[in-house]
Amino acid sequence: MAIPQLQNTKPKVKMTKESPSLKGTLASVFLLGFFLMFTWISIYFLFLDRL
Amino acid sequence: MHIHKYEKIWLFFGIGSLFVFLTIIGVSAFAQGNQPPSCLTTIDPEKVDETPPFNKPGLVKTGDNEYQLNIVASAFAYTPNQIEIPKGAKVTINVTTKDVIHGFEMAGTNVNMMVEPGYVNSFTKTFNKTGQYTIVCNEYCGAGHHMMTAKVKVVNKQ
Ligand SMILES: [Cu+2]
Known about the structure:
The complex is a heterodimer of chains A (about 50) and B (about 160).
Chain A: H1 2-17, H2 23-49
Chain B: H1 5-31, E1 41-42, E2 58-61, E3 66-74, E4 77-79, E5 82-86, E6 90-97, E7 102-106, E8 112-115, E9 119-126, E10 131-136, E11 149-155
Parallel strand pairs in B: 3-6, 5-11
Antiparallel strand pairs in B: 1-9, 2-3, 3-4, 6-9, 7-8, 7-10, 10-11
Bound molecules: copper (II) ion (CU).
InterPro entries (chain B): Ba3_CcO_II_C, CcO_II-like_C, Copper_CuA, Cupredoxin, NosZ/Cyto_c_oxidase_sub2
Subcellular location (chain B): Cell envelope
Organism (chain B): [Anoxybacillus] calidus
């Protein structure tokens, strides 16, 4: 009976360790995203201007 | 599998932008009929001088206000290299090469294409402003590459 109890305690410890903060990652991903959108849209307007 | 909430957000935007691009390309190609400058029009590169319209390169009137501009590129020149276009003309430019790969860029416009031996590349543009344009080769083709140019003048004509 002693062994199963030991095994039960392990996953509980892991669960509390998870979910790191990804705020910085989210900000940098969208910063890059907006930069890409800005360049593509400005190239499109350059194309329209030269039509 | 557990995915972080933020991860779901940027995955949604990433996959979403793929669909936006696919839709734009689809509408542009199938609804508006846009094609790349070369749509597999072929020509024998050794018989360019005998093949119409390149046996008489230059500007040809094809309609009310429509023109065809046929240009032969070769190392290291365009034939012809002094062109006059009446203002407001809708010009379809056809280019081919007799030897190696050349470029065809009308500086400051959307006219920009590769010229490959064996193919005819086309681009249609309406010239609404008078002025001068320089055509340059933007595909390295050999020792005289930097001297490979042509001049286009858009002039007032009744
Ligand atoms: Cu060239």
